Amino acid sequence: MASAQTAYRLNDFEYAPQRASRPDVRVVAGTRTDAGSLPPSIFLAAKVIAVAMVVFALVAMVRIGLQSAAVSSAVEGQELSSQIKEARSYGNDLEITQTSLTNNSTLRAIAAGMGMEAPEYTSSIVLEKDVVATDGSGNLSLSQSVRNSVDVRG
């Protein structure tokens, strides 16, 4: 297993860099003077103002969000109102059309305009009972159809 060793030592050569000597440092006991610093009350006031600005910004954003939601709800309400008016108008038109188409005199006039005439006599056709049966939900019922087939034949 290899170990990490230096290839050579700089202290062994003549041209090894010389280390700078440490400067003399003296420690003088005393207190620090803050000739240019501000009083702590100004820092407190700045913090209060910053917090107030953040709160104001949050309240403004919430207010804008609520106002935009109110505007979008109003627009959707107007769209629904116009759709309701349109549906009522369409329903009234259908009612008028249905009334005119069920009126016998209107039908006779339309038929005459198309070249149709009233029949000389009318007759009815009576059909046998249908063999195919459905259940309560509208699906075909094989068992009921078989019963109907047996009833019709025999």
Rg from alpha-carbon coordinates: 50 Å
Instruction: Please summarize the sheet with the most strands.
Output: none
Quaternary state reads single chain
Number of H- or I-type helical stretches? 3
Distance between the termini: 105 Å
Strand elements, count: 0
State the helical fraction. Answer: 55-70%
Shape descriptor reads elongated
| Residue fraction in strands | under 5%
Mean pLDDT: 84
The run of helices and strands is HHH
SS-based structural class? mainly alpha
Stretches with pLDDT under 50, minimum 5 residues: none
Question: In short, what is this structure?
Answer:
This protein has helices spanning 40-102, 104-113, 142-153. It has 154 residues and is mainly α.
Record keyword descriptors for this entry:
3 helices, mainly alpha, 154 residues
Give your account of this protein's structure.
The structure is a single chain. The protein has 154 residues and is mostly helical. The protein has three helices and no strands. The chain has helices at residues 40-102, 104-113, 142-153. It starts with 39 loop residues before the first helix and ends with a helix.
Helices, strands, pairings?
Blueprint: H1 40-102, H2 104-113, H3 142-153
